[in-house]
């Protein structure tokens, strides 16, 4: 293994991209993604990385350039946030349909309006059904590891799908953390060169992006859905091999004191570590509480989630986005559906918190737990969701 | 046009890279332009197409008319996609992962995909200096969606969104000069062409491909369906467009203007307008306005050529 250094998580992410020896980086500046792209521009300018750095004129073109470069078989990386993701939205969906294994770091940030540069998950939730593999990470080490993981999984011929690594903007991208780098040998063992299933090359002409009439469109959607679902064994294999090489074990659903706990928090992303502290303190007070963290968001790990949640009486789902006019947060809505057919289905209590970077502390999570404990044990419509801490 | 002679047709490859059997309308001169562009570039090419007629007619899953590598992603991003393909290939060649074949990268789109929705992506790709050719097939409206006006629709033309009615007389804005916008990017090569002049078109596309850096070819592509003309008149109308000066053929090599086809006397614009259903409603007044505008623009273009000579 390489050395353990303290540095900004954005820089660690860029260094991981560099070590993955990407061929093309296309990106447009947007807060809080900028440090990652700036550092990549630097390493290309200094000759530390031999790649084409393409400073495009918009995020829409960023993703379009990525499609072109991935289609010729170049290892391709991009990075964006919030409005940038919204602008490239159209091409994000097409990238997955065309099975182009682009890797994107999404420095999660709230969507306008009002304009806000701070962290929540409203950007990524807007593209929930885009067909990309989507993972969430909690700290700098996980960011570094998951960039290696991203290229490895996305480019595997069995998968050939784009992949998003969700990194909380500012809260994670801009903090300094200890990160254990991989050495070159480990990278080489873990990440083979990109060999695309098809590439745009004069020696073997292929047509990519043909249009689908009603007679064939449904079949293409089925094929794409199956491809995403069938990516899971490769995802699990990639995590297993990473564990063998680095000693760090990752799972689709991480659990913390979950076994036997009556109440479970469900988190995604960097708030997970704060919730763990709250869980420790609550357990010290004798409360039966644990925590699940959803690492793999798409393809959704149904089996793993049901197993991890088995036996719980209540799940407190912490959503970082509002599903306007719906039943609270997008994650809770989905979790209710996932658990619907379970015997003794736990009550799903949904707190929407930490919108646009508003601080949520250990005390807040403890307060949520207390509040949830006093709620009905049955499913009551009025208690579908609570926008935590909102001033009305 | 200097190479145009009676043997020219024999010098053109008989090989087709844009295969027959596509679904274009009868008499489509845009499909003809695409065929000749493909012929001009041969097999060592990668093509990125915008959404539009040419994409729809040539790639209905599971069929394709493309005998060269071809990609379509969306409407407004052909220039960005081809710049990605160019950059990706460049990186792979430099890193020794692919042999250097000197492949030509071709982006293509209609007038809407080029001068409206895709203008930003094209401008970006020009500015970044990718080594690619962009061809605009200009049929002067959104024909694929049913003849809606674009910024390339000429003044007076009736389309489904600029209809000639009791109060308004079709398109009330003048055609956006896309070739001049390309020139303003200081790209090494810009040319106009028309599928009615195939040898000139092929020569220009090959010249564009031979340039280091971005090159732009704007091809007037007559659309019988949208222009309301009989399918067998497309070539003739294209010639009229050039002979009247409505669509002059010229090239700009490293900023130097050069007319590529000129006539001792330009034919009156009226002949061109009267032949098309989309201009049927024009009053003599409007025809005169159009004639004046064509005269001014032609003079302006000529003066650029002369200016270059003096300078």
Give the strand content of chain B. Answer: 5-15%
Unreliable parts of chain B: none
- What's the shape of chain A? globular
Summarize the helix and strand pattern of chain B as letters. Answer: HHEHEHEHHEHEHEHHEEHH
Q: Please name the CATH topology of the largest domain in chain A.
A: Rossmann fold
What number of domains of chain B? 1
How do the helices and strands follow one another from N- to C-terminus of chain A?
EHEHEHEHEHEHEEHEHHEEHEEHEHEHE
- The DSSP helix count of chain A reads 13
Could you tell me the mean pLDDT of chain B?
95
- What is the 3D shape of chain B? globular
Nearest-angstrom radius of gyration of chain B?
A: 19 Å
What is the gyration radius of chain A calculated from CA atoms?
Answer: 21 Å
Number of domains of chain A: 2
Topology diagram in text:
The complex is a heterodimer of chains A (392) and B (311).
Chain A: E1 4-8, H1 9-19, E2 24-27, H2 34-45, E3 52-55, H3 59-71, E4 76-80, H4 82-97, E5 103-108, H5 122-125, E6 133-136, H6 140-155, E7 163-168, E8 176-180, H7 184-190, E9 207-208, H8 214-229, H9 232-246, E10 253-256, E11 263-267, H10 271-284, E12 289-294, E13 296-298, H11 302-309, E14 314-319, H12 330-339, E15 347-352, H13 362-373, E16 385-387
Parallel strand pairs in A: 2-3, 2-4, 4-5, 5-7, 6-7, 11-12, 11-14, 14-15, 15-16
Antiparallel strand pairs in A: 1-8, 6-13, 10-12
Helix pairs in contact in A: 1-2, 1-6, 3-4, 6-9, 10-13
Chain B: H1 8-11, H2 29-41, E1 45-49, H3 53-58, E2 70-72, H4 78-94, E3 104-110, H5 111-116, H6 119-128, E4 133-138, H7 178-183, E5 189-194, H8 198-210, E6 215-220, H9 224-227, H10 234-243, E7 250-253, E8 256-259, H11 269-274, H12 284-310
Parallel strand pairs in B: 1-2, 1-3, 3-4, 4-6, 5-6
Antiparallel strand pairs in B: 5-7, 7-8
């Amino acid at each position: 293994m390489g050395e353990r250094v303290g540095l900004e998580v954005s820089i660690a992410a860029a260094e991981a991209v560099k070590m993955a020896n990407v061929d093309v980086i296309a990106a447009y500046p947007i807060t809080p993604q900028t440090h990652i792209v700036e550092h990549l521009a630097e390493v290309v300018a200094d000759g530390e990385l031999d790649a084409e750095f393409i400073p495009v004129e918009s995020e829409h073109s960023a993703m379009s350039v990525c499609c072109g470069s991935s289609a010729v078989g170049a290892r391709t990386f991009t990075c964006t946030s919030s409005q940038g993701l919204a602008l490239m939205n159209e091409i994000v969906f097409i990238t997955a349909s065309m099975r182009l294994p682009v890797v994107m770091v999404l420095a999660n940030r709230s969507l306008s309006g009002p304009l806000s540069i701070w962290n929540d998950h409203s950007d990524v939730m807007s593209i929930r059904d885009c067909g990309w593999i989507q993972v969430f990470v909690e700290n700098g080490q996980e960011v570094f590891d998951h960039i290696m993981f991203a290229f490895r999984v996305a480019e595997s011929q069995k998968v050939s799908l784009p992949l998003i690594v969700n990194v909380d903007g500012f809260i994670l991208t801009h903090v300094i953390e200890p990160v254990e780098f991989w050495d070159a040998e480990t990278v080489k063992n873990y990440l083979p060169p990109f060999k695309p299933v098809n590439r745009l090359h004069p020696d073997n002409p292929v047509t990519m992006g043909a249009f689908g009439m009603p007679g064939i469109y449904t079949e293409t959607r089925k094929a794409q859905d199956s491809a995403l679902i069938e990516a899971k064994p490769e995802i699990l294999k990639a995590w297993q091999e990473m564990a063998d090489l680095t000693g760090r074990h990752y799972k689709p659903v991480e659990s913390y004191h979950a076994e036997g706990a009556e109440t479970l928090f469900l988190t995604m992303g960097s708030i997970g570590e704060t919730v763990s502290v709250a869980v420790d303190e609550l357990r010290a007070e004798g409360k039966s509480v644990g925590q699940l963290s959803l690492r793999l968001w798409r393809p959704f790990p149904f089996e793993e989630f049901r197993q991890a949640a088995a036996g719980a009486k209540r799940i407190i789902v912490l959503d970082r986005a509002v599903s306007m006019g719906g039943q609270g947060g997008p994650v809770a809505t989905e979790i209710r559906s996932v658990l619907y057919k379970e015997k003794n289905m736990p009550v799903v209590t949904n707190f929407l918190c930490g919108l646009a970077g508003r601080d949520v502390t250990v005390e807040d999570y403890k307060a949520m737990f207390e509040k949830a404990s006093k709620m009905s044990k049955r499913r009551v419509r009025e208690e579908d969701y609570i926008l935590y801490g909102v001033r009305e | 046009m200097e190479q145009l002679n009676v043997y020219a047709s024999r010098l053109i490859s008989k090989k087709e890279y844009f295969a027959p059997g596509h679904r274009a309308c009868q008499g489509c001169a845009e499909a003809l332009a695409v065929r000749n562009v493909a012929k001009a570039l041969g097999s060592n090419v990668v093509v990125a197409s915008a959404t539009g007629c040419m994409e729809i007619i040539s790639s209905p899953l599971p069929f394709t008319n493309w005998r060269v590598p071809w990609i379509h992603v969306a409407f407004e991003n052909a220039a960005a996609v081809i710049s990605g393909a160019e950059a990706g290939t460049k990186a792979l060649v430099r890193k020794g992962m692919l042999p250097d074949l000197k492949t030509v990268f071709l982006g293509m789109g209609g007038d809407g995909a080029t001068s409206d929705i895709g203008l930003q992506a094209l401008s970006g790709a020009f500015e970044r200096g990718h080594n690619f050719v962009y061809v605009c097939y200009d049929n002067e409206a959104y024909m694929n969606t049913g003849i809606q006006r674009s910024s390339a629709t000429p003044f007076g033309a009736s389309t489904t969104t600029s209809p000639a009615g009791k109060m308004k007389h079709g398109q009330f804005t003048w055609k956006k000069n896309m070739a001049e916008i390309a020139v303003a990017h200081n790209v090494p090569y810009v040319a106009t062409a028309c599928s009615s002049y195939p040898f000139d078109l092929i020569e220009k596309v090959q010249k564009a491909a031979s340039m280091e850096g971005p090159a732009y070819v704007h091809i007037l592509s007559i659309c019988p369906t949208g222009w309301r003309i009989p399918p067998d008149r497309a070539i003739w109308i294209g010639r009229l467009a050039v002979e009247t000066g409505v669509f002059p053929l010229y090239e700009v090599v490293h900023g130097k203007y050069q007319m590529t086809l000129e006539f001792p006397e330009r034919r009156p614009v009226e002949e061109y307008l009267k032949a098309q259903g989309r201009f049927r409603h024009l009053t003599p007044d409007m025809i005169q306005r159009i004639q004046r505008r064509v005269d001014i623009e032609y003079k302006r273009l000529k003066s650029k050529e002369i200016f270059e000579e003096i300078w």
